[in-house]
């Protein structure tokens, strides 16, 4: 079937949900049947809707391109981002999701690819954080309503790694059930991968900025989000418990000298995971191993019931002490597996 919307310039298409292969194939055909668009937003994008074929029709005209809330594990690679850079010379506004569990070297390649977009001014970058070593069917086969089992629908024991020490190699009591047997090292890496603070947000912006060619417009506005990608909600909540979303703006003063201004923004998830609650007991040993300075010194003080009630009320209204110790890690010291 041919769709003729000759005057159409902007399209927001929502295809979120578990879909069949045929559905995505039809969606891809529909998008390719349209006249070249200047603005395209696809919510629930899937790898079966190929980037290259999509951009072969719309790329040369696109000024805004957003792949919002893609299906789980449907993240963009450096190669796909390079395709966007080559096919979309006019692109000014981009929204994509990348794999937050990648190594720092792999992420640096993605930042360089983003910086190669000559006219890019506004970027909405989402990091999807999951587990390394998860037995997976091909990414293009996940989230399809075909009866194919997804990761987590069977009993999976994630492998150990040579870099794991004795503690990291032990199974994590709070992250083992009938579907998964995760080790402390897996949970520890997931926690580190999910941390985004002001320093790291500015470093990401600067890395993209440094990759820009000298005469191209500077990146003006970067929004960074971190989400958990997994089938178990409690494990997604761990990522959301530790992560923060940021907006970084590039400003110039009267001397035309640039500086970066970062501000934490509302995630829109509400109090998912309980950002102001105490750490889950099973998570404390791993958290204190990552941030030893956060570990309480000595036995807890004995408080009267009245004073204890007052302290509990204060804690519920304030940032918990453990959260104040969270920080990102330089590439040289972060866990790499």
From TrEMBL:
Stored InterPro entries: LRR_dom_sf
Biased composition (Basic residues): 298-308
Superkingdom to which the source organism belongs: Eukaryota
Annotated region (Disordered), positions in chain: 296-318
Protein name per its UniProtKB record: Uncharacterized protein
Source species: Penicillium cosmopolitanum
